[in-house]
Design brief:
- There is one protein chain.
- By secondary structure, the protein is mostly helical.
- It has five domains: 196 residues, no CATH class; 99 residues, Alpha Horseshoe (Serine Threonine Protein Phosphatase 5, Tetratricopeptide repeat); 88 residues; 90 residues, Tetratricopeptide repeat domain (Serine Threonine Protein Phosphatase 5, Tetratricopeptide repeat); 101 residues, Glutaredoxin (3-Layer(aba) Sandwich).
- 51% of the residues lie in helices and 5% in strands.
- The protein is built from 26 helices and seven strands.
- The chain has a five-stranded mixed beta sheet with strand order 3-5-4-6-7. Strands 1-2 form a two-stranded antiparallel ribbon.
- Helix 6 packs antiparallel against helix 7, helix 6 packs parallel to helix 8 and helix 17 runs antiparallel to helix 18.
- Pfam families: Thioredoxin, TPR_16, TPR_6.
- One of its GO terms (biological process) is response to stress.
- It comes from Brassica napus (Rape).
- This is (rape) hypothetical protein.
Length: 667
């Protein structure tokens, strides 16, 4: 009795049991099989799964009218299996006839039921046989290991070699390795996985790195160049390529090291020298850039040589301006050098920061320095202004830190600069200044904390001898004057601190409080209004401003103050003025006297500056009786009355003496 395969017409969602039952069906309907549009006799061997010692019984060869031909005349399965190099792999088995090979099969994606869909879906024996029946049970669902059914599991006439059915495997049946999810029971075509075999050729690795570099993936390029270098450490091209990736990542100093290594490996490597010249130009090291641009008599690129020459010119002009303390010119030349290509030069940035510091733009100087990357432990031997570049950068950083009151940081950086370049007189000078200022500040703070304000003021003054433009020391000394009740000195030191560092909040607060103690409410209000804008959420500043405004209003109301020097023309009015509460100053002048005319504007200034003082003017030419009663013999003469009593008389005083006496009697 011939066994013919019956092809089911049900869709692919048929259960496994139904398809298995159909494969065991011995009935044949020619119309049912031959007229199927996807019919083709499958002739793939089944990979044995279950162990058995029974020999397989060959199925009777059948005939088919399909285009795939019959199984007769084909080589045995045993000979086909013998040709395989890996018995555990799954592979397509070609037809015995020329017309039935795999090349004539048209793939149909998604087709699961016939060979016309390309590589067939092969189910393992374990999927059909429950474990309890694996030992040799019979039935539609538990075929004997020695009996291989026909159908779309194993084509008619294709019987596996005896004994191979006993080999069980639980490995996924895929054509390549990897961790991807390839589905259940499917054979995945080669090339579908992402895993790529690793190459041992450093040139291939370098090319892969070049591809990553061109795509802008510099970190991946660096990784690949590192791998190439590990495979061939003596190849200078790999070092040069790694330098390019480092430079593109902004790591210029590391790039320089790689190029230097490339040049060490091959001193005549032109590309590495060119890359070094470009890197040194960006770092602002003109001398090094020129050396590598013109190495071994090579003809340099004219454009690059021009850029190096321009950088040298700006550096020379910058040095000359620095010697002359022309700090604005220094900034101009630094900006020009950066625009010429030295866009990553720490020493040029530090030079600009130094110029800003000398121009009392301390916050801008600090902001400028913040753009410099942290210096590494391997320092360049290039110099600027006679110092090693890294030492110069640290010196500037130390001075800016000191100006902002970061004395500990300043001392650390100055000491680091000394370790780098101990032969530089300027570095030695900076370290000495920073050390002495830091000591003075520490000593002053200790004395102030212990309540020894006078000694503390002296200690801060010692620090100012080494750094005459340290706003922090001025502000600290002003605090001592305030505690001692010398408010005019407190105002002076706060004003000096603010000239050095405009917007210094602590100095502004202290000066406003000192103005209040002096009764100069207009000045106090002005400072508090500035602070209110800078510190909008500070309740203490808001309260101080309100108190100053109230005191100012009360003072003006009580004194009838009108910010002008009042003229007195008769003796009665003079006696009334001298009896006013507080301080009254009388200015005796003559319109024909040059000294009187010269000092008159200053009297108006004092009137605005000291609103608690009453200023009166007497013209001796028009008030002869009053001048005679007061015994005025020479002009200008000044008399100060306090609470109705004369306390001071001055003849032709200078501005300072006059103001000092006004302040003295206000206290």
């Amino acid at each position: 009795m011939s066994h013919y395969r019956r092809h089911s017409l049900e869709p692919s969602i048929d259960s496994i049991t139904n398809r298995f039952r159909d494969s065991l069906n011995f009935q044949r309907d020619d119309d049912d099989v031959i007229n199927k549009p996807d019919f083709r006799e499958l002739n793939y061997p089944l990979k044995p799964r279950v162990s058995s010692s029974a020999a397989a019984t060959p199925a009777a060869s059948g005939s088919s009218s399909s285009s795939s031909g019959s199984a007769s005349g084909k080589p045995s399965v045993t000979s086909q299996l013998a040709k395989r190099s890996h018995s555990g792999e799954l592979s397509e088995s070609g037809s015995g006839t020329p017309g039935s090979g795999a090349k004539n099969r048209t793939p149909k994606p998604g087709h699961r039921r016939s060979a016309s869909a390309g590589t067939p879906l092969i189910y393992s024996g374990l999927a059909f046989s429950p474990v309890k029946n694996r030992g040799g049970g019979s039935g539609a669902t538990s075929p004997s290991p020695g009996v291989v059914p026909s159908g779309n599991i194993c084509p008619s006439g294709k019987i596996p070699k005896t004994g191979m059915a006993s080999r069980a495997s639980v490995k996924p049946e895929t054509l390549f390795t990897g961790n991807g999810n390839y589905g259940h029971g499917n054979i995945v075509r080669g090339g579908g996985g992402k895993a790529k075999p690793e190459t041992r050729d450093p040139e291939e690795v370098k090319k892969a790195g070049n591809d990553m570099y061109r795509k802008g993936n510099f970190s991946e390029a660096l990784s690949l160049y590192d791998k190439a270098i590990s495979m061939s450490p003596e190849n200078p091209a790999y070092r040069s390529n790694r330098a390019a990736a480092l430079a593109a990542s902004g790591r210029l100093k590391e790039a320089v090291k790689e190029c230097l290594e490339a040049v060490r490996l091959d001193p005549s490597y032109v590309r590495a020298h060119q890359r070094l010249a470009s890197l040194y130009l960006r770092l602002g090291e003109a001398e090094n850039a020129r050396r590598h641009l013109c190495f071994s008599g090579q003809c340099p690129d004219k454009a690059e040589l021009q850029r190096v020459q321009t950088l040298e010119k700006h550096l020379r002009l910058c040095s000359e301006a620095r010697k002359m303390s022309d700090w604005k010119k220094v900034i101009t030349e630094v900006d020009a050098a950066i625009a010429n290509g030295a866009d990553s030069s720490p020493q040029l940035v530090a030079c600009k920061a130094e110029a800003l510091l000398r121009l009392h733009q301390i916050k801008d100087s600090d902001l400028c320095l913040s753009t410099i990357q942290r210096l590494d432990h391997q320092h360049t031997q290039a110099k600027i202004f006679g110092m090693l570049c890294d030492a110069y950068v640290l010196c500037v950083q130390a001075q800016v830190d000191m100006a902002l009151g970061r004395f500990e940081n300043a001392l650390v950086k100055a000491e680091r600069a000394m370790k780098i370049d101990s032969n530089s007189n300027e570095v030695v000078s900076v370290l000495n200044n920073v050390t002495n200022v830091a000591k003075a500040r520490t000593r002053g703070n200790e004395l102030f904390t212990s309540g020894r304000y006078s000694e503390a003021s002296v200690a801060y003054g010692e620090g100012l001898k080494f750094d005459a433009f340290n706003s922090v020391l001025y502000c600290n000394r002003a605090a001592c004057w305030f505690k001692l009740g010398v408010w005019d000195q407190s105002v002076d030191d706060c004003s000096q601190a603010l000239r050095i560092q405009p917007g210094y909040t602590k100095a502004l607060l202290r000066r406003a409080a000192s103005y209040g103690k002096l009764g100069r409410w207009d000045d106090a209000v002005r400072d508090y209004e500035v602070l209110r804008k800078e510190l909008p959420g500070d309740s203490e500043v808001a309260e101080s401003l309100q108190r100053a405004l109230l005191n100012k209003a009360e003072e003006h109301k009580y004194l009838g103050y009108n910010n002008e020097v009042e003229e007195v023309s008769n003796l009665d009015k003079f006696k009334t003025a001298t009896s006013l509460p507080g301080i009254s100053m009388f200015y005796f002048k003559s319109t024909s006297n040059r000294q009187s005319e010269a000092i008159s504007p200053f009297i108006n200034t004092l009137c605005l500056r000291y609103p608690l003082v009453h200023f009166f003017m007497v013209d001796v030419d028009e008030s002869l009786a009053l001048a005679k009663a007061e015994s005025i013999k020479k002009v200008p003469t000044f008399k100060i009355y306090k609470e109705g009593e004369k306390v001071k008389e001055m003849v032709c005083p200078n501005h300072k003496l006059l103001e000092d006496n006004v302040k003295h009697f206000l206290l």
